[in-house]
Design a protein that fits this description.
Elements: H1 2-6, H2 9-55
Length: 60
């Protein structure tokens, strides 16, 4: 049991896992915020294309 508490090999692995977890949380939050902006942008493009197609007599 003493050997288990003295070894520090797993400590580095835990630190890397925590850093990767933090980076993943930040990336998910950033992509989530950007996703709503991109969705709105594509919605505007879709509306404009639909309007342009209706003026040309083309039915989507």
């Amino acid at each position: 049991m003493n050997r288990f508490f003295r070894e520090e090999e797993g400590q580095g692995l835990v630190e890397y896992a925590l850093i990767i977890g933090l980076i993943a949380i930040v990336a998910i939050a950033a992509l989530s915020a950007a996703g709503t902006s991109v969705s709105g942008l594509f919605g505007n493009i879709n509306d404009k294309l639909s309007t342009a197609n209706q003026g040309n007599g083309v039915n989507p």
